[in-house]
Amino acid sequence: MTLFHALIRTHHITSRKKVAHLRKAAGKYEVYALLRSGGCPGIMYCKGNEDGVRGWVATVQSLRYKDFHLASKPAPIESEVVQSAERPGLVEVAAVQDFAAAMAKRGISAWWKRGMDFA
């Protein structure tokens, strides 16, 4: 099975109600989602099957986050690191540094940096 992923940037992620909605959507679409919440910038990463990733991204878009930007559209994962299927659900990190470490662990740092306009 080919895994897909997507990257979303927003101004910030602070609403606990919206995060709860995203957590529910991650379970519904059976995707792994990683959020950098608590301040600026808000970053969201999603991984799973194609339909699940597209559905989760549509859910995020429907929540009307300020400055929503689909930095990397849903696409197959291209990585040197073997991608394991993480358990569906939502994980939050507080710092961009922690988010970057999670991307490095998955072997997709270059992809993430391009999506964030760091590269």
What's the gist of this structure?
With 119 residues, the protein is of the alpha+beta class.
Itemize the secondary structure elements and their pairings:
Elements: E1 4-10, H1 16-28, E2 32-36, E3 42-48, H2 50-62, E4 69-76, E5 89-93, H3 96-105, H4 109-115
Parallel strand pairs: 2-5
Antiparallel strand pairs: 1-3, 1-4, 2-3
The 3D shape can be described as globular
The name of the CATH topology is Alpha-Beta Plaits
- What is the C-alpha radius of gyration, as a whole number of Å? 13 Å
Give the strand line-up of the largest sheet.
Answer: 4-1-3-2-5
How would you sum up this structure, described in words?
- The chain is an alpha+beta fold and about 120 residues long.
- It has one domain: 2-Layer Sandwich (Alpha-Beta Plaits).
- Helix content is about 35%, strand content about 25%.
- It is built from four helices and five strands, in the order βαββαββαα.
- It has helices at about 15-30, 50-60, 95-105, 110-115, and strands at about 5-10, 30-35, 40-50, 70-75, 90-95.
- Strands 4-1-3-2-5 form a five-stranded mixed sheet.
- A hairpin with a 5-residue loop joins β2 (about 30-35) and β3.
- α1 runs antiparallel to α2.
- The termini are far apart.
- The model has no long low-confidence stretch (mean pLDDT about 90).
Q: Which terms would index this structure?
A:
Alpha-Beta Plaits; 4 helices; 119 residues; single chain; five-stranded mixed beta sheet
